[in-house]
Specification:
By secondary structure, this protein is of the alpha/beta class. A five-stranded mixed β-sheet has the order 4-3-2-5-6, with helices on one face. It has a two-stranded parallel sheet with strand order 1-7. The chain is elongated, with a radius of gyration of 30 Å.
């Protein structure tokens, strides 16, 4: 039995220059359409006004508790936290450093109950409590 001889085919040539051009166009497209991360505040809070607000400096380490208008209401240093976790974090911080200061940033429209809970947690932990406001010219 005689089989027909196979003709050897030439390997197809790949044009590398065209592939590089296409890859560069795709890379440029991805770079242009990517949204770059901006350093913006996580929460937009309208602080209440106070005519008695003063600028004070303290050597105590500050823990910033933010109270937002919608759930989750409590944020500790920009991270969402529950009330129980906040109480434990304040207790641990005052055990390490008794001069811990709790700065509370509460939105004008935030639930008052949340502010009271934070104030109670700070009192239980025996931490210094500051409620941050904006100075008004009244």
């Amino acid at each position: 039995m005689k089989f027909a001889p196979h003709k050897r085919r030439r390997a197809p040539t790949v044009i590398i220059v065209s592939l590089i051009d296409v890859l560069l166009v795709v890379l440029i497209f991805l770079m242009v359409t990517t949204t770059f991360k901006r350093l913006e505040p996580a929460l937009n809070i309208a602080l209440p006004d106070s005519s008695q607000a003063t600028v004070g400096a303290s050597e105590a380490t500050a823990m910033v508790v933010t109270i937002a208008t919608n759930a989750p209401h409590l944020y500790l240093d920009g991270h969402p936290i529950s009330l129980n976790e906040l109480e434990r974090a304040l207790q641990d911080a005052t055990e390490r450093n008794p001069k811990v200061r709790v700065d509370v940033k509460s939105d004008k429209r935030a639930p008052v109950g949340e502010l009271v809970h934070v104030m109670d947690a700070a009192r239980k932990a025996k931490a210094t409590l500051n409620v941050l406001t904006e100075k008004s010219d009244r």
